[in-house]
Design brief:
139 residues, 5-stranded antiparallel beta sheet, 3-stranded antiparallel beta sheet, homotrimer, elongated, 3 helices, alpha+beta
Chain lengths: 139, 139, 139
């Protein structure tokens, strides 16, 4: 990426389990500061087909655990799959949660709820992963 | 929020049931008019971890009912949850549906399908809730 | 739509099955080129209540098949539905996957992962369908 585009930041992380929610709110906040973004939006985007970006409670870690348990019910193990890599469930969970989230920025701060955090959702780890933070300025 | 930022509108509503889809299309349209937004995007964002924003049919109220019935199947009651507040299902539904939606605006109008409306989705009510409407201008 | 708004493109397609994932990445790339969009975002939006837009693997077509199989589990047939048109499942799948996706654009290219493609997801076909591509410029 050209070094002179301050509106796009590429971040990386390592996941350590098959399935894992990692709170990336601090990295997104840091990227917003470094962009000098005051008022606008940020898009957080995972360029992966077996991972996702979610927004939910990041104060009590049992919430992420329980969301993963629920996704296991919604997308259970092999139900006549054709894809031979054995990770169809991870693709389905990625499609259900979605690979990006959009957050409003005002006065340099993410406009989120008290209990909300931004998670990188690993569904087929452990792996080296990346995500993008893209900023848009409004006023 | 500073009164001089016309691109961000904070709205509030009361939900009256444990689970409920409330059509907020009129509030979003009003916010777009008040911003003077002609061409661009609006992001509708719920700052909550047990609620969501969805776009689907708002003409026949049975559609929202049936989506809630389906979500009850996808995210059923206690399956070995750890979160002690008893509302893990509401968190999971919030993560599955997502806390924001993005809608295109042209000539001051939301560019949506004939049958589409924007819903505030309550999964752990009744509560006092808020949502944001953020406008971005393009051309 | 006014012919002088180059930031909004309306596309159409025909679906040929009840449920189908159609790779629309080439159409989105073409729309970005025609807009002359260099750095920014594109929003891909389906104005339908029984269809969706998803991002996932487009190299191995069995992945889309397996995602559809998983959605059939998450949203199974009639569970006490009220909507009389018989397509409640399609509405629920549309709400779960979502009617839009946002993709970053840099140097005129979509910033996506190697295996990612953009899909139009049909859940109640075959039908004539449309989708919008909306571009926003940043730097």
């Amino acid at each position: 990426m050209p070094s002179d585009d301050k509106t796009l930041s590429k971040q990386s992380l390592h996941t350590s389990a098959k399935e894992q929610f990692i709170d990336i709110t601090p990295q997104v906040e840091k990227a917003v500061r470094e962009m000098g973004l005051t008022n606008g939006l940020v898009v957080v985007y995972a360029p992966h087909t077996t991972a996702a970006i979610a927004i939910n409670e990041n104060h009590d870690p049992t919430v992420a655990h329980d969301i993963l348990v629920t996704l296991d019910h919604a997308a259970p193990l092999d139900r006549g799959f054709q894809h031979l890599e054995g990770n169809s469930i991870a693709h389905a969970k990625s499609a259900l949660v979605g690979c990006s989230q959009t957050v409003i920025v005002q006065d340099g701060q993410l406009v989120m709820g008290t209990w909300q955090g931004i998670f990188f959702c690993e569904f087929d780890g452990p792996r080296h992963r990346t995500f993008y933070v893209k900023g848009l300025t409004t006023a």
